From TrEMBL:
InterPro entries: CNG_cation_channel, cNMP-bd_CS, cNMP-bd_dom, cNMP-bd_dom_sf, Ion_trans_dom, RmlC-like_jellyroll, Volt_channel_dom_sf. Its main location: membrane. This is Voltage-gated potassium channel. The chain crosses the membrane at residues 21-42, 48-70, 82-106, 112-131, 143-162, 174-194, 206-232. Homotetramer. The lineage of its organism: Bacteria, Pseudomonadati, Pseudomonadota, Alphaproteobacteria, Hyphomicrobiales.
Length: 370
């Protein structure tokens, strides 16, 4: 008998554990582990909760060791063990499972050894979609980011040398060497300004002001590069998700790829829970909706009509009277594609066949509603 038929719960755990995101149990283990590590360093709490803290820490460690073994075995079964071991997730899993035991075997004091449980926090990183997106942005914008880094290091070095030349005679303790001046340069260029080391010569202060201004410019460049790259990556992800939904709507099935791309750029996606009112009767209409997933209910006089995946609604307010003619509510979790009025008119101008289909459907519904 196969293992999957004998231990279905175990198989489900293996599938969830080896997936891309963390399981709920892993999040609970990380949270409990972090709390226990924090309490480990608090003297009033440590003596009182000594046994409870170590019980929680050992339980978390056992879970992470078991999780690591499961992932190693799964990677071996699919022939990807070396790739997993050398990946970020593999390194974090190994450190989470082995760092504390190795420290305890090396006879490091338990309170210090368990602080290596800080690696557990890194386990949440692969499961955070935004961080994966940020990593792609950093890789794609690595050239501009490195260019700004070169500017930063250049200004840092030149400022250190300049202040050494100007200040080492009057402040030998603070600016007695270029490495000593680097502390001042880093604090000034990052605009931190601790104030523990400051130039006192007039020319030295002028250079310090220039360095502070350069610091604002350098970090402004880094921020601009990351913000622009992140916005572009977000638009790309939204485009791909919307493309996937548009291609599933039968109404757009006859369009070619270029036309679908054109439509995708006009649509925006919204996710709605059940029993959410989308349209209220009598309101002004400025958009229409396509149902990518889910179902809505149209409340007409004397009857209610259900519209499912692939249907569209809200077009009648855009074609004639701009007032909504019925209340429309979701009946279950639904994903809708929204087309605004301006884009609606642009789409109708570019694709007359779609315009004819929408107008024909609007006339049919108008006749049914009389």
């Amino acid at each position: 008998m196969s293992r999957s038929s004998t231990f279905p719960v175990f198989d489900q755990f293996v599938t969830a554990t080896t997936g891309r995101n963390m399981t709920s149990a892993a999040y609970v283990a990380v949270t409990c582990g972090v709390v226990a590590i924090v309490l480990l360093t608090v003297d009033p709490a440590y003596p009182a909760l000594h046994y409870l803290i170590y019980t929680a820490l050992w339980a978390c460690l056992a879970f992470f060791v078991f999780e690591w073994v499961i992932r190693l075995r799964h990677a071996a079964n699919i022939g990807r063990r070396p790739a997993y071991i050398l990946s970020f997730r593999g390194i974090v899993d190994m450190a989470s499972a082995l760092a504390v035991p190795v420290a305890l075997v090396a006879e490091i004091s338990p309170r210090s050894a368990w602080l290596l449980g800080m690696f557990w926090v890194l386990k949440v990183v692969p499961g955070i979609r935004g961080l994966r997106q940020l990593r792609r942005v950093i890789v794609q914008e690595s050239g501009p980011l490195l260019s700004v880094l070169v500017i930063f290091l250049t200004v840092l070095f030149l400022a250190s040398v300049a202040e050494f030349v100007l200040e080492h005679e009057v402040q030998p303790a603070a600016f007695g060497s270029v490495p000593a001046a680097l502390w001042w340069a880093v604090a000034t260029l990052t605009t931190t300004g601790y104030g523990d080391v400051v130039p006192i010569t007039p020319l030295g202060r002028i250079i310090a002001a220039a360095v502070m201004i350069c610091g604002l410019g350098v970090f402004g460049l880094w921020t601009g590069i990351l913000a622009t790259g992140f916005a572009a990556e977000t638009r790309r992800d939204n485009f791909l998700r919307t493309w996937e939904h548009v291609s599933k709507v039968p109404f757009f099935a006859t369009l070619g790829s270029s036309a679908i791309a054109d439509v995708t750029q006009m649509l925006r996606t919204i996710d709605l829970p059940p029993r959410t009112t989308i349209i209220r009767k009598g309101q002004s209409g400025d958009c229409m909706y396509f149902i990518a997933n889910g179902e809505v209910e149209v409340d007409l006089p004397g009857k209610k009509v259900a519209l499912g995946e692939g249907a569209f609604f809200g077009e009648m307010a855009l074609l004639g009277n701009n007032l909504r003619s019925a209340n429309i509510t979701t009946t279950r979790v639904s994903q809708l594609l929204v087309l605004d009025l301006v884009d609606f008119r642009l789409l109708m101008a570019r694709h007359p066949d779609l315009a004819e289909t929408i107008e024909a459907e609007a006339k049919r519904r108008a006749q049914e509603n009389k």
